[in-house]
Amino acid sequence: MTSASSPRAETTGAHTTGGHIPVLLAEMLAALAPRDGGIYLDATFGGGGYAEAILSACRCTLFAIDRDPDAIARGAALTARFPGRLHLIQGRFGDMLDLLAAHGVGALDGVVLDLGVSSFQLDQPARGFSFRADGPLDMRMDQDTDPAQPTAADLVNHLPERDLADVLFELGEERAARRIARAIVAARAEAPILTTGRLAQVIRAVLPPDRSGIDPATRSFQGLRMRVNDEIGEIERALAAAARLLAPGGRLVVVAFHSLEDRPVKRFMAEAAGVAGAPSRHDPRGLLAQTAPAFRLLTRKAVRPGAAELAANPRARSARLRALERLAPAPGSAGTDGFDGFAATPMRGPT
Predict the structure, then answer these.
(1) Do residues 156 and 173 share a domain?
(2) Per-residue model confidence as pLDDT tens digits over 254-307
(3) Same structural domain for residues 266 and 179?
(4) Adjacent-strand bridge partners of 255
(5) Is 3 inside any structural domain?
(6) Domain residue limits at 318
(7) Euclidean distance between CA atoms 313 and 257, whole angstroms
(8) CA angle at residue 161 from 127 to 179, to 5 degrees?
(9) Residue 239 and residue 111 share a domain
(10) Residue 265, SS3?
(11) Which end of the chain is least crowded, N or C, by CB within 10 Å?
């Protein structure tokens, strides 16, 4: 995904399988710094581009999560290439604590999150993510495992006009959200909107073409997809869980493609590292004793793709990487970091 000022036209962090290219791959490896004997988590397996790079960099163990059963199936070949070292888990990355606990893992040396929708999902019309080819208006990332989850068609056809406009504005950053919501409600009164093609047609009918060449339906489709999959909530849960899982010296690396994704990551890491800004001298919290932060920022500013990568892969243009490291507890500390109750020294379970 991309920033609000330069929306990404249905692109995402890409992967090696099927010709897709991992974004910021070298920068991810440099920030994660995987080592022999370490235990790592690729929380957004996708096409396996990051997972393959991590496993090739050292003799480590890697767990990989993806909520999409198609992604897990695609990973079988990679599992065979790295026997006993790659363990695929189907589920939501926001549930990583429970998913890893079921495998006896309670601490990690590193976590990678590559946020956004997968290119594989966009390329399958039947998944309903894309307006480039007509398909059912679905957009569920885990449609086969949670059939009761509302689809994009459910939202489009049943949300009140005001609520629909809020989704398009807040998660799609669509300035014309009210106009689009009004048009959708009028169209669905004639017949239910059940396909990506019809929804895109309704949106294009009320929005002029964007001078940048971005399809007028891009932002609305993004907003609906993020609402269907609760993507911001998943990110926030995953960040909290990753912080709890990191052992001293462990690193969290996040690649985002949109300001809506990057914003909670930036805020979370700043707060974890104690650089979010001190309270005002008039704020009573300023009188409280401040505990030493349990994390340090590895990236003061987001790392962006270089010119060579952008030339080879224009899809990388909106990517930004941030990284955080858990510090060893200070001598004589009470064993907690004061950051949302995370344990300072999580225990490593059997693997």
Answers:
(1) yes
(2) 999 989 999 999 999 999 999 866 555 555 655 555 678 999 999 999 999 999
(3) no
(4) 114, 321
(5) no
(6) 17-119+231-326
(7) 14
(8) 90
(9) yes
(10) helix
(11) C
